[in-house]
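Researcher: Here's the sequence for the chain we discussed earlier.
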Amino acid sequence: MTALTWLGRHASALLLLGLVTVPFVPVSPERLKPLLPVLVSLVTALAIARQPLGRDDLARLFPPLGTARLVGWLIVSQLGFSAVAVLISNLLGIAPWLAFLPVAFFSTAPLGSAPNVAAMVRCDVRLALRLTLLGVVLAPVLMPLALSFTGATLDATPWEMARRVLAMLAAGIAGGIAIQRIAGLDRIERNTDVLNGLSALAMIGFLFPLLSGTGAAIAADPVLAAGLFTLACALNFGGHLVIRAAARHVVPPETAAAAGLVFGNRNMSIVLAALPFDPVLTLFVALAQVPIYATPYLFTPPDRRDPAPACPASSES
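Model: Thanks. This is the structure I predict for it:
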């Protein structure tokens, strides 16, 4: 057994280990922020590399009617939920800096590594991949538009944010295609544990620009940190479980699990990578990594944490 295979088979525990150690690395996240675009591209590439990308494969992955439904859902879950969050914040008189945080969550595309996480928890990888790929395509339009609902003064224009997001995600797609061409899809499919190990390492790498120095920030204002952590968990786990429960009425459990997972786990690091440094937003995104990195452990039944067969194909069409 290779080291990467072992890491892939213990990915959920490895992610938790990274989660509890990286925050105490004495490096400012502002200094490591330039790494974020590269890491966004890397985890996107690892997700893309798993998927057959031939013309016929893509036609099967994205049937017209099913794709239209998923695009509609992404528009609702990003623009619609962002608009509702802004409306509720205005009605309740919530401070603009705080009202911006839920919109930062809802506005962003699915987590680039969502298909990797779906593979770890043995749910519907195909649906997770479809939503992630469509989210990648729509992100340069939906994210800046959703953030504009807040009325916040942003240093970057919507066009500039769109350009940055498009550059990061396009690099990830190109990287995924390159990995698949070099390694070969058959070899990738035979070594899913190896790819899970690489994905876990990439996700831990993500933690350094997001979580390093977070321990000091929490100590400086523990009340703020506790509030941000509670909000992050409510948005992630709450959204995950609500969407999962609702989806079970219309799709199989594995597909419903993937729908909830993708909804609750979002790529908020793109907001950090696209906008100027903000300490509160940075701390919120850092603390939001806790439910993301706990998801593979919490949502994998104990009797399925050992290697298991590939997930069934999505029934969503």
